[in-house]
Specification:
By secondary structure, the chain is of the alpha+beta class. It is built from 13 helices and 18 strands. A hairpin with a 5-residue loop joins strand 12 and strand 13.
Length: 307
């Protein structure tokens, strides 16, 4: 397979950069210190696919992944309007509903910390843009029929079945429900067009998963029904013996590091200064490499003021 070069890094109607957002600074610190992004099992809603195997309905599946979004830098702080749904939303006052519907942004849902790389880097790391399914299209209804036939037929070859099931790793509904944490006790659901996120997804190589005795998907309802099960599995993936499935990079690959405010910026600067020297490729100018990393930090508050 040929390596994508910089001359191909030219997207004229979308961003040339892929962002990975997170809610807490500890995740960004881990990414910088480990020089790697650790995949985790994330719950995906598959209720719209009506997947069933005899008497079992698979409404959700946990996929081992890391997600990035194709959003131009100048649009990261843009606010947009969304329709709130659900009981928690209905319990709000009219003014609270109006404020929440009018003031949404990508960081509000996915976190105010981020790290960004070029799309060229993502392509060479085998990232795949998500395939968004229109629930009403003939394509989707045909796929649902094929999927259920495979799950409920005994004489299907394992290779063919796995090939179709792997499609589930890279699909998402065109529209659906997304949750936004407003406070420690309040989470509001919104109806959202997921296509606007332009998601690209990384999933570990199947051969590596086989060696580590891991699956790309967890569909067992008994495991998924207890959130602590997924948390426990994800925590175990942070151990060094699972490093083969981590998404590694070089510090020079980073385009931007995003933090919410000046206090967080100082915190991340301190993290960078204390990254072990052995993590850097060239030992002759480690300090300059750290300064180069620090220069890539952008503050959301400042971005908002300048746009």
């Amino acid at each position: 397979m040929s390596k994508i070069g910089d001359s191909f890094d030219d997207y004229t109607q979308s961003a040339n950069t892929l962002f990975h957002f997170m809610h807490e600074s500890k995740y960004l610190k881990s990414i910088l210190i480990n020089r790697a992004i650790i995949p985790r099992y994330c719950i995906e809603n598959f209720e719209y696919l009506h997947i069933h195997n005899k008497n079992v309905n698979y409404k959700e599946v946990a996929i081992l992944q890391k997600c990035f979004c194709d959003i131009p830098l100048h649009k990261i702080t843009d606010t947009f309007e969304l329709k709130g749904v659900g009981n928690a939303y209905q319990s709000l006052t009219d003014n609270e509903k109006y404020s929440l519907e009018k003031n949404n942004s990508h960081p509000a849902f996915y976190g105010k910390f981020a790290i960004a790389f070029s799309k060229t880097w993502g392509e060479n790391k085998n990232f795949q843009p998500i395939h968004y399914l229109n629930e009403n299209s003939l394509y989707t209804t045909s796929f649902i029929r094929l999927l259920n036939n495979i799950l409920n037929t005994d004489n299907i070859s394992e290779e063919y079945a796995r090939d179709v099931l792997n499609t589930l790793l890279f699909i998402k509904p065109l529209r659906g429900i997304i949750k936004r944490v407003i406070s420690e006790n309040i989470t509001i659901e919104f109806y959202k067009n997921f296509h606007d996120e332009q998601e690209w997804r990384y999933t570990p190589d199947p051969s590596i998963l086989s060696t580590l005795k891991l699956e790309s998907m967890i569909a067992n309802p008994k495991i998924l029904n207890i959130s602590d099960n997924i948390k426990r599995i994800n925590n175990s993936l942070e151990k060094e013996n699972f490093r083969a499935l981590w998404l590694e990079y070089n510090y020079k690959d980073i385009r931007y590091i995003i933090v919410p405010d000046s206090s967080s910026k100082n915190e991340i600067i301190n993290t960078i200064i204390h990254i072990p020297n052995k993590q850097f490729d060239s030992q002759s100018d480690v300090l300059n490499q750290k300064y180069a990393l620090i220069s890539k930090i952008l503050v959301l508050e400042e971005i908002r003021k300048d746009l």
